[in-house]
Amino acid sequence: MNSSNNPKLATRSIDFFRFDELTWDAVADLPRDTPLVIPFGSGWDLGLLADQLASPPRIGILPSFPFGWRGSGLELPESAFIPYIRNLLDGLRDDGFSRVYCLAPQGFDPQSAFVSDLSPSLLRQPHASQYSQRIFLPPDDARGKVILVPIGHTEQHGYHLPLSVDTVIIEAIANGAANNNNSEGGEQPYLATRSWTLPVMPYGVSTHRASFAGTLNAGGRAFEDSWLAVIDVLAQRGFDRFYLMSGHGGNMSFLVNIVKYAGERHRRIFCATSFLHTSGRIGAEALEKHRTSKIGGMGHAGELETSYMLHLRPDLCRMERVVDETDFISTPDYYMDWIEGGALVANPPWDDDTKTGAYGAGSHASAEKGRAWLESAIKEKADHVEQIHEQHERREMRRNEGYGLWGRFRSRN
Question: Across-strand partners of 320?
Fold first, then answer.
């Protein structure tokens, strides 16, 4: 979208605003007839969009959906792509918004009965962005690299942080790992990664969607089907190493299922995920080194995520509105912190434990902590990438040597 990096987009007298840069309570206050638009890709004509919507005073632009349609560089089957989109639109309607749309290329015109109900929500324009050209995501020369798949989300993060927190953070970590930059002011460079990152996906799964305005939900089954389809498409193109990286805790159980399905379906790939970021052996050490809050201070929109945002997007932080909430109903085997503990897995309503949409102590955050934790998170992901390479290469060596049942399979070919 033109001028998409600006906090507010303006053309004529219409206020184009970034939906994901609002706090959830600001979304709750929006008039319910405010048009809300999910663009497919970027490069759209805002003036034409205003005309298509009859020039309302304000138009909310949601995060761009990065791929999935024909011509996007990574095309998915309609049966995987459309339910993902439909669930996002339905969530906005459930919040009471009456004018919700997708902005799609002019040639995007699904015809099957399966997707006919999406057509009234489609706005179409000539597509002037990079996606109108013949490209591939990933490019063919990325074969042999680990394909990073960063997945964030658009959801509430208390009164002081925007809806975009999970997406901003995981995008920065993925880009840092893939670009192999030296750390800012650090003594050691990040590990070499031999990786390539897909554009970040700003929509994941929130089973608590109805509790806080502005929180989206792709739906668990649609999420799994869509990302398994991504692996299917890329495996067919010859990619064989994948790392599904999430910035949002609600995605995690579904990502584990996707990894299991993918490993069963494609026996010669290595597809992995991990619990969030800054949570493995490198990240956990960094958390303990710099944190000042007690256990419970890093659950959600607390010390960790607020520090990240103060480093990455301080313009979107409203620290005067921080409310520390650490009154989570905890027992020895069920509590909330960034690296969660205990044997119990449950999903009680968020309303039980938070009044503001935050679990944690955001007042303990600082930009310096965010910088240090980002550096550690990138090192951790780079290390994971190198382990994925080693796992794949050693397993392929065994297969090619006829290890175990692989020898029987080989003799049949």
Answer: none
CB neighbours of residue 141 within 10 Å: 9
For residue 10, the tally of other CB atoms under 10 A from its CB is 12
Query: Read out DSSP for 42-64?
Result: S---HHHHHHHTT--SEEEEPPP
For residues 247 and 130, the model is more confident at 247
Predicted pLDDT of residue 182: 40
Q: For residues 28-55, b (16+ Cβ closer than 10 Å) or e, as one string?
A: eebeeebbbbbbbbbbbbbeebbebeee
- 254, 259, 264, 267 alpha-carbon torsion, rounded to 10°: 160
Q: pTM value?
A: 0.92
In the predicted structure, residue 192 carries a pLDDT above the cut 80: no
Distance CA 176, CA 197 (A): 10
Q: Which two tokens stand for residue 68?
A: 């999935």
Residue 175 tokens, joined: 């880009």
Q: How far apart are the first and last CA of the chain?
A: 50
Domain map of the chain by residue range? 1-136, 138-328+358-413
Beta strands across the sheet bearing 241-246? 195-197, 146-151, 241-246, 270-273
Q: 99-113, 212-226, 254-268: lowest mean pLDDT where? A: 99-113
Any idea which residue has 């009164």 for tokens? Answer: 159
- What is the spatial distance between Cα 198 and Cα 179, in angstroms, rounded to a whole number? 12
Domain 138-328+358-413: give its CATH code. Answer: 3.40.50.10310
Q: How many CB atoms lie within 10 A of CB 210?
A: 15
- The label of the residue with tokens 């995981």 reads 170
CA separation, residue 213 to residues 51, 217, 338, 373 (Å)? 28, 12, 23, 29
Contact of 84 with 41, CB cutoff 8 Å:
no
190 vs 331 pLDDT, higher one: 331
Q: What is the pLDDT of residue 311?
A: 98
Q: Note the pLDDT tens digit of each residue in 274-310.
A: 999 999 999 999 999 999 999 999 999 999 999 999 9
* Mean pLDDT of the chain, nearest integer: 90
